[in-house]
Amino acid sequence: LPTGAVSGFCSMLFKLLEDSKSDKNLQKPTHFAVILYLIEGSLGLPVFAKGGGVGYLLGPTGGYLIGFIFTAFFAGHIDNKKDPILIFLYLLFSVSIIYFLGLGGLWNYMGLEKNFYEVFLIGAKPFLLIEIYKILILTVLSRQLFKFRKFI
């Protein structure tokens, strides 16, 4: 969702769903897929919101993109058989990594003389409510979706 220097990540809901595992025997390193995605984009393949190239990792969205790696890693360790509140908190922690690294990268891009609140207003505030909704949806639907996924 374009809103200025930083675009919203609608795919994050599906990425978290993919990374969450339904069975402890299914160990899949999805963070490697994210690393491959970033390499492809850095090499110029148009996989990012508006194209490709190493400039995306050095630009205002670079920190967010790097945060995907860590989010995929942590989301890949979620056990959907746990209490939904724990799943919600774990997903919230996983997504927070994207914002932590993303805001740091955006702050560096905008200039460190800016105060953090200005960076937060551009790089996080417009997206926080929708992120909470996405995490809630995933928390509520995760068990049913994994049962369906096993059926397929």
Can I get a quick summary?
The protein is mostly helical and 152 residues long.
Description:
The chain is mostly helical and 152 residues long. 67% of the residues lie in helices and 0% in strands. It has helices at 11-19, 30-42, 55-58, 62-75, 84-110, 116-123, 125-151. It is globular, with a radius of gyration of 16 Å. The relative contact order is 0.18. Residues 22-27 have low confidence and may be disordered.
Features:
152 residues, mainly alpha, 7 helices
Q: What is the terminal-to-terminal distance?
A: 31 Å
Shape: globular
What's the helix-strand series?
HHHHHHH
The low-pLDDT segments are 22-27
Strand portion: under 5%
Average residue-wise pLDDT? 79
Helical fraction equals 55-70%
Q: Given the helix and strand composition, which structural class is it?
A: mainly alpha
Q: Could you give the count of β-strands? A: 0
- Biggest pleated sheet: none
The number of helical segments is 7
Q: Rg from C-alpha positions?
A: 16 Å
